[in-house]
Amino acid sequence: MEFTDEQVHRYSRQIILPDVGGKGQKKLQQAKVLVIGAGGLGSPAALYLTAAGIGTLGLVDGDVVDLSNLQRQVLHTTDRLGKPKVESGGTLLEALNPDVNLKLYPEHVHSSNIMSLISDFDIVLDGSDNFPTRYLVNDACFFAKKTLISGSIFRFEGQLTTMKPHEGFPCYRCLYPEPPPGELVPNCQEAGVLGVLAGTIGVLQANEAIKEILALGESLANRLLLYDALDMSFRKVARPKSPDCPLCGPNPSITTLEEYQVSCSV
């Protein structure tokens, strides 16, 4: 795969990095990344992955653009209210970098389609805003042996981690074995979230995906990154593999995909 003069110019600031170079840029162009959710996290993640020159970028979301989304979902604009989010997002991503092969999936994620959605991709970014999708994506990536980069936000706080249980690292259930009861989860509209927080965590998800593709730096595969937007603190805590994990442990109780009742993410 040879670069055109335009591509060399476009990606020049990356290519001149000693740890990236032309070989690294080719790895990015050959990579396939699926972003689940074209919302607060998926928007900045998709934008920066597209700008970086990811070869194939998938975007999954079954919702339409609402006015309340625009405070944090930067893929969308006021003139696209009511349009499917993947259509709206695809318009901006195509304009940003026509080199990228966009795969748009205007559908919600559920147990009957998740395996086919992730099958053609190397890395999955979970930008969903609810526990059912979060657990479903984790389980599917475990069964399909896909690297998963999970981000979540709540009010002024964010979390980020990478899951690679197929390489011996813990999965999401090692940390949180089961979803919380629905009655304990705040309502999405009432809980609120700082818009710029979504940008911070979403960009960090894109950063982790690029690190995984280029095999650079230290992975978050056994750690959980915690961010507090009010005191501007980042903290990493250990995320050990659980010997009692119901999914990736030695005696799993979960062997098939399960559906959960919809609830808001914390």
SS-derived structural category: alpha/beta
Series of H and E elements: HHHEHEHEHEHEEHHHEE
Kindly, what is the distance between the CA atoms of the first and last residues, rounded to a whole number of angstroms? 43 Å
- The percentage of residues in β strands lies in 15-25%
Write the CATH architecture name. 3-Layer(aba) Sandwich
CATH topology: Rossmann fold
Please give the domain count. 1
Rg, please? 18 Å
CATH superfamily: NAD(P)-binding Rossmann-like Domain
Low-confidence stretches: none
What is the CATH C-level name?
Alpha Beta
Strand order of the largest sheet: 3-2-1-4-5-6-7-8
**Mean pLDDT over the full residue set:** 93
The major β-sheet equals:
8 strands, mixed
Number of helices: 10
User: Globular, elongated, flat, extended or rod-shaped: what is the shape?
Assistant: globular
| Count of strand segments | 8
How much helix, percentage-wise, in residues? 25-40%
Structure description:
The protein is α/β, with parallel strands linked by helices and about 270 residues long. The chain has a single domain, classed as Rossmann fold. It is about 35% helix and about 15% strand. The protein is built from ten helices and eight strands. An eight-stranded mixed β-sheet has the order 3-2-1-4-5-6-7-8, with helices on both faces. The termini are far apart.
Short synopsis of the structure:
The chain is an alpha/beta fold and 266 residues long. It has one domain (31-238): 3-Layer(aba) Sandwich (Rossmann fold), CATH 3.40.50.
